[in-house]
Amino acid sequence: MSIFLFGCATYYEQNIKLQSLITSGQFEAADKELNKDTKGAEGKNRYLYFCNRGVVAFMNGQYEVSNDYFNKADYYVEDYSRSLGSEALALITNPMMKPYRPEDFEAVLVHFYKALNYIYLKDYEGALVECRRVNIVLQKLNDKYKKNKNKYARDAFAHCMMGLIYEASGSVNDAFIAYRNALEIYEEDYKKLFGLDVPNQLKNDLMRTAYQLGFGTELNFYENKFGYKYEPEDPDKGYLVFFWMNGFGPVKDEWSINFTNTGYNDGWITLANEEHGLSFPIYIGNKSRNDQAAFQNLSFLRVAFPKYSERKPIFANAAISSNGEQFPLEMGENINAVAFQCLKDRMVREMAAGIARLATKKALEEAARNENENLGAIVSIVNAMTEKADTRNWQSLPYSISYCRVPMDEGMNSVNLNLNGRMQHSVPFTFDIKKGQTTFFAFHNLESERR
Predict the structure, then answer these.
(1) Would you list the domain boundaries of the chain?
(2) Which residues pair with 252 in a beta bridge?
(3) Sheet hosting strand 400-408, strand order edge to edge
(4) Is 211 helix (H, G, I), strand (E, B) or coil?
(5) Which residues, other chains included, contact 267 with Cβ-Cβ below 8 Å and sequence gap of 6+?
(6) DSSP β-ladder status, 268-273 and 425-433
(7) Which residue, 2, 308, 326, 348, has fewest beta-carbon neighbours within 10 Å?
(8) Which stretches of the chain drop beneath a pLDDT of 50?
(9) In whole angstroms, what is the distance from residue 164 CA to residue 403 CA?
(10) Which residues have a Cβ under 8 Å from the Cβ of 379 and sit 6 or more positions away?
(11) What is the model's pLDDT at position 302?
(12) The pTM is what?
């Protein structure tokens, strides 16, 4: 019975110790826990294993080690190939028997962490490569879907990061182009899909680079578009770009739905659910006569599917205070919203695969019952026990990423991260700022609703 209960547990429940160590900030202990997983690097969850190792190494300040782990995860995305054995096993059990294939946004966020690692290593070119790869990866992934393509096909925040890095490295023209691309994606995609407006920081970035390049026409256009005049910066200042990663993203749970066989017609059966307006035809014309009879005799199926459960962050907003001024941190990436949208976009594909799986299992059950009633009963019990949605996901990702760019005097600067929400908190930092240079820093607030 304990084996059955463990099999029914979600991926989150099966890995609760590791997740608790990460969400409580015990990253050295989390690293030791990951070290105990001797099969992690070769097992069916190896992508998640490498991603968790990458995050833990990043939080421990081991940036080269972190990139080594993320490179292994990234290589797995590029080299993902189906195992016929695991595919067949999944068809008669459940999709958790297959190697985990990351959600599209998870494949993208590997490059966000790699870019941060390269920034900390002072390798701006390496960071830019990772930013560029984000939209290339999204395009490649979406091109594979013949139907029901994902709406998350471009990433605005990757272009924001690209612009900030280009500007820090002195490539102002490239920065302007990146900011302009980010603006387009926020306006055309992010507002509708994720309820995310254009950050004011991006508006400032666009006008600043247009001014620096002497693009008077473009500057006037953006001043009119955004409704305020650009004020040139003090050339004696240095700059702090602060990335705020807030809370933790959603975890996958399970839900199920019943489908009814609406009849057989010319080699096809159709499984439908009137409540949700769903209908899936399944072709059985080329199967054996016994298999056809088994499929036709299906009355209804209960199919399990994944769903996300949100982990709301404790803090709703934040600002950087420096020299008596407040600089709000504005959300550039709502990872929680992206996750829900990606799962919604692929749900039709997920349902088709789930129904094919359950139809095959039920047909096997019916065929076994025709041979022997007791054998059919055993197959029925096994089918019920093994029907399960794939609840695996990358659970150490943040809920959202916000950012701001703060001008500062040269020298040591004391700043505070002021957090507001269901509670208030302030975190002090000190930065050594250089005139005309940009310092990057990322901070992850771990507080969120507990599961």
Answers:
(1) 154-232
(2) 308
(3) 425-433, 411-421, 315-322, 325-333, 400-408, 238-246, 438-445
(4) helix
(5) 283, 284, 285, 286
(6) unpaired
(7) 2
(8) 1-7, 81-92, 375-382, 384
(9) 11
(10) 364, 365, 368, 369
(11) 73
(12) 0.86
How far is the C-alpha of 291 from the C-alpha of 268, rounded, in Å? 13
Helix axis angle, 46-59 to 27-35, nearest 10°: 150
Render the burial of 253-278: b for 16+ CB within 10 Å, e for the rest: beeebebebeebeeeebebbbeeeee
Do the beta carbons of residue 14 and residue 43 sit within 8 Å?
A: no
CA distance 20 to 173: 45
Contact 305, 347 (CB under 8 A): yes
Which sign, positive or negative, has the C-alpha torsion 132, 134, 137, 138? negative
- At residue 265, the pLDDT reads 78
For residues 59 and 260, give the distance between their C-alpha atoms in angstroms, rounded to a whole number: 49
| pLDDT given for residue 245 in this prediction | 98
For residue range 64-106, list pLDDT tens digits in order. Answer: 999 999 999 988 766 554 443 444 444 445 677 788 989 989 9
Token pair belonging to 441? 């820093």
Roughly what angle, to the nearest 10 degrees, separates helices 46-59 and 104-120?
30
Q: Do 430 and 414 form a contact (C-beta atoms < 8 A)?
A: yes
Q: Which two tokens stand for residue 123?
A: 């390798």
Phi first, then psi, for residue 198 (nearest 5°) are: -65, 125
Contact between residue 43 and residue 83 where contact means Cβ atoms under 8 Å apart = no
| Cβ atoms < 10 Å from Cβ of 229 | 10
Q: Which two tokens stand for residue 63?
A: 């940036």
